[in-house]
From TrEMBL:
It comes from Ruania alkalisoli. Gene3D superfamilies: Vaccinia Virus protein VP39 (3.40.50.150). This is Methyltransferase domain-containing protein. GO terms for molecular function: S-adenosylmethionine-dependent methyltransferase activity. One of its GO terms (biological process) is methylation. Pfam families: Methyltransf_11. InterPro entries: 23S_rRNA_MeTrnsfrase_RlmA, Methyltransf_11, SAM-dependent_MTases_sf. Keywords: Methyltransferase, Transferase. Residues 52-139 form the Methyltransferase type domain.
């Protein structure tokens, strides 16, 4: 097995391009929620006339849909992801545009009967409601409260309080913008890290877990995590996820 320094260097060297987690195969594993978001998305897309995927990353999840709608668009805020998403989604006929995560969205009112978002950084509720047609649907799989608090505390200390998005609060905000919440589900899932390289790459990629993380600044904590993995075979954390589906009411 590579030593601590080599593993940290390996985790630092992995590209952050796109939102592809295949590098983690065999090095980390996250249990999936029971609702199978990718299948739900593919089903909704097949029935839509015009659809928008928000904060699409490199288009990894959207690319899995079987039958794209006649009009398909996607937004992404991080410029290096744009050519990746455009190349990946070209076969679906998708238009990929750069737009801030919090909006505004560069689309006309009532332009889409489906808006989707997998793990959005923020929910631009006013913009979601604006671009949805009356009767249109927002479908999203999101990060919940206290996700990976064990890993955050291992890096930043046990005093750190859980943070994150509350499903009930998001549902209330959706309703305040004229949307009817038709589905709200929650899940807690195991996240297992099998070497410290996976921890380093994860913290570089999922930046909100430990804001400002660098392997240099957190080397002592990383060594402690490395020792836990050597002793126990893994470092165990937990993610929280929720699914929200909301429909724009017909006036």
């Amino acid at each position: 097995m590579p030593d601590f320094d080599a593993l940290v260097a390996e985790g630092d060297a992995v590209s952050l391009e796109g939102w592809d987690f295949s590098w983690f195969d065999g090095r980390a594993h996250e249990e999936r929620p029971p609702w199978r978001y990718s299948e739900m998305l593919s089903d909704r897309m097949a029935r839509a006339q015009a659809a928008l995927d928000l904060q699409t990353g490199g288009g990894e999840v959207l690319a899995e849909i079987a039958h794209p709608p006649a009009i398909l668009a996607a937004t992404e805020s991080w410029e290096p992801n744009l050519p990746v998403a455009r190349a990946r989604l070209s076969s679906l006929g998708a238009r990929v545009v750069q737009a801030p995560d919090e909006g505004p969205l560069p689309f006309t009112d009532s332009a889409f009967d489906l808006v989707s978002a997998r793990l959005p950084v923020v929910n631009p509720w006013s913009e979601i409601a604006r671009v949805l047609t009356p009767g249109g649907t927002f479908l999203s799989h999101q990060v919940g409260h206290a996700t990976n608090i064990e890993l955050t505390r291992a890096m930043m200390g046990e005093h750190i309080q859980p943070a994150g998005r509350c499903p009930e609060h998001e549902a209330e905000t959706a309703r305040a913008h004229g949307l009817q919440v038709v589905d709200l589900r929650r899940a807690t899932c195991r996240v297992e890290f099998y070497d410290v390289a996976a921890v380093v790459h994860f913290l570089r990629k999922v930046v909100w877990t430990v804001p400002g993380f660098t392997s240099v600044g957190y080397r002592r904590q990383l060594r402690t995590v490395h020792e836990i993995i050597q002793r126990d075979g893994l470092f165990l954390s937990h993610s929280t996820r929720f699914l929200i589906e909301a429909r724009k009411q017909v006036l």
